[in-house]
Amino acid sequence: MADVIVIGSGASGGMAAYNLTQKGVKVLMLDAGDVFDRKNFWTHVLPFEADGRLRRGDAPPQFFLDKKEQPYLTPEGRPFDLARVWGRGGKTNVWGRVSLRMSDLDFTAAERDGWGIPWPIRYADIAPYYDRVEELIGVCGGTDDSDALPGSRFLMPAPAPRCGEVFLQKACDKLRIPIVAGRRANFTRPHRGFPACHYCGACGEGCDTASFFNSADHLIPFALETGNLEIRSNAVVARILVDDRGQASGVQYFERQTGAERQVSGRVIVLGASAMDSTRILLNSRSSRFPNGLGNGSDQLGRNFCEQIMVHVRGFLPQLFGRGYVNDDGISGEHVYVPRFNHRPDREKPDYLRGFGIQFWSTGAQTTGADVAQRLPGFGAGFKAEVKKRYPALLSLHPFGEVLPRPENRVTVDDSRTDRYGVPLMKVDVTFGENERKMRKHMYDTCEEILHTLGAEIVPIDREANDVPGSAIHEHGTCRMGKDPKNSVLNSFNQMHEVPNLFVVDGSAFTAASEKNPTLSILALCWRASDYLAEEMRAGRI
Amino acid sequence: MSERIGPIGRRQAIRRLSAPAVVSLFHGYHPLVPRQEGEWKARFFQQSEVETVARIAERILPETDTPGARSALVHQYIDFVLSRGDSADQDRFRDGLRWIDQTCQSRFGKPFAELEGGRQDEFLTGISESPFFREAKRLTVDGYYRSEAGMKQELGFEGNTFLSEFEGCTHPEHKSWSVGE
Q: A52 to chain B: which residues are within 8 Å by CB?
């Protein structure tokens, strides 16, 4: 029997295994997929080289799970876009790498505005873990802290801004909108035996030199080295099993290749299958003691889904027209970031709750000109010339705004629809509300203001448009932590109120989403939770 | 004519007056289209539609001092994408092609592909807000700017390479620019 069964191998599962095995705990990791071999990554394959590669029998790894293999249900007219990576390292193989600490602006939001339940922790509780995580995973950035974006202690040097970003800095300075160096888990210096970033700009294909943090290269091998980790690949977890005392006793899973059912027992279960799949597993883990899902006496499991709403504004900067190709690849993604500023005393008080930050990926000359050409009118030789002229001049603004947790935005399971293993499918029912629509207006206004200040040519905006729910790939809230077991599922150490030997360590544990990308916080919370777990085990309380 | 957002260059004008390069629509493959045995064969389009699609794509992104959509074999890309699309998208595209040929036939006595270039541009300008044209343009743009002709020859892309440092903006005139100038 394993001391601890860790479900999932991404940011949270990888961190749990990394920390626990170093402390001498025997861990069995169940991973729904297999290893993605870095040798096969298509980091350096241009679109027009793809066919030749394919003909030689060389295919890129299929990171994203085919929805046909594991469907999910959505109500008519309410789409939800769920991206999943099943396999060693999970989504960290291809993640956006934006690494932003949450601050007390986030942790105290519910107390200040009365929406939702309070976080059970403060910045001071997690700050030491942010320090450790940043040191471990290698984050580049500046020393430009603020109340919305604290902590820059272990940051590697930020990459220089691209031309377009130099102009964005000037516009924001003029408008008194804060703009700081982007914080990203790309190595701008060699780190822990891995080479520095080589600035090819193709992080989204997976990094062939592992020069940005991913769980498969930067956590799991170190856990394996201890001799305390066993990994079972292609193990698709269906349910957590409980014993007569209501304690978690093991896991039921299905072999992905054969469909065979397996059970494995353990003293402690750490669930890190990513928010939506973890929630589905818990909702499907029903028993006479837990009739509506494991640890769900509060009826909060699956509810309070939250994330970020995204819109996109693009413009062309006349100052950069027609200057020809410039290599703007950098660390892929923006080198500058606008942290939340709507709370600042010199700003008009917003007519909505919470806030947004702005990212700028795809600014400058991109790999293909299609992104530019799709946004220009006309056709013919004149159109072709205009595309070429604007190709290096693209500015892309992508605000991310906090979506409030609401009980009706929820995940359930549908007994009448099952997957290939006979396990009920998840149903996702999420819509944005009035607060998001008001914030969206401020997001558009701010982007327009920045582009106007530069005299940029703004690509026509549809102000009613936003990405469909789920597009941020930052799912939270469905297994939230809180002080009160009556309105939350986990305590402040990600431990289930009702099942003390079960920990849920992925994004589902977040009480609220904030406007920030979550992986850094998932890693820090999981490190903290697994420290606590190891101590509880050592003391014999678990 | 199609130059709605900029004047035509002298070089392009001269090129346009000369005879278009004869490019086989079936020889070679667009780089994003899987190979078949022997020459390329349409997966979705009927033989009679291929020429029309290639002509439309070439009017959208014509040959200038760099190759156009036709020699970049963009019609093959469009065919491939549509062959994998859902039947509603397929029907819409096919209906659009049929409507174009019927309309050209009744208006000019010839199908679209046989019209002279300026006439084709005029016709496309008339339908430039239609869902069909927008879809044709979207696919043409995707296929062209992801081909070697579009990325390298037209736009001069030299990225996705190994750099030891990233210099960022090195232009004094950008750094000294101030808001309001």
A: 31
What does the CA dihedral A128, A130, A131, A136 come to, rounded to 10 degrees? 130
Q: Judged by CB atoms within 8 Å, which residues 53-82 of B form the interface with A?
A: 59-62, 64
- Rg, C-alpha atoms of chain B: 19
Strand A27-30 and strand A2-7: the pairing is: parallel
SS3 content of chain A, % helix, strand, coil (to 5): 30, 20, 50
pLDDT at B19 exceeding the cut of 60: no
User: Do residue A379 and residue B128 have CB atoms under 8 angstroms apart?
Assistant: yes
Kindly report the backbone phi and psi dihedral angles of residue A267, in degrees, each rounded to the nearest multiple of 5, phi listed first.
-75, -40
* Nearest C-alpha in B relative to A365: B157
DSSP state of A440: H
Distance CA A325, CA A304 (A): 46
B175 contact A CB<8A: yes
SS3 state at A396: strand
* Count of pairs with CB atoms under 8 A, one residue in A, one in B: 182
N-term to C-term CA, chain A: 15
8 A C-beta contact, residue A411 and residue A478: yes
Residue A398's H or E segment, with its range, is strand A394-402
B18 touches chain A (CB under 8 A): no
Distances (CA, A) of A494 to A527, A536, B38: 11, 13, 60
Does the pTM exceed 0.80?
yes
Confidence of residue B2 (pLDDT cuts 50, 70, 90): very low
Domains in chain A and their CATH numbers? 1-38+61-70+83-139+208-301+476-542 (3.50.50.60), 147-182+308-402+432-468 (3.30.410)
- For A259, the 3-state DSSP assignment is coil
Is the CB of residue A335 less than 8 Å away from at least one CB of chain B? yes
Query: What is the per-residue pLDDT across B52-67, written as a single tens digit (0 to 9) for each?
Result: 999 999 999 999 999 9
CA gap A507, A518 in Å, rounded? 7
> How far from chain centre, in Å, is Cα A21?
24
Note the pLDDT of residue A335. Answer: 98
- CB atoms near residue A134 (< 10 Å): 26
- HEC string for A214-256: CHHHHCHHHHHHCCCEEEECCEEEEEEEECCCCCEEEEEEEEC
CB B123, CB B96: distance < 8 Å:
no
Residue A460 contacts by C-beta under 8 Å, 6 or more apart in sequence? none
Q: In whole angstroms, what is the distance from residue A346 CA to residue A205 CA?
A: 42
CA dist A275 and A474 (Å) reads 9
Separation of alpha carbons A462 and B1, rounded Å: 29
- Number of neighbours of residue A179 by Cβ within 10 angstroms: 23
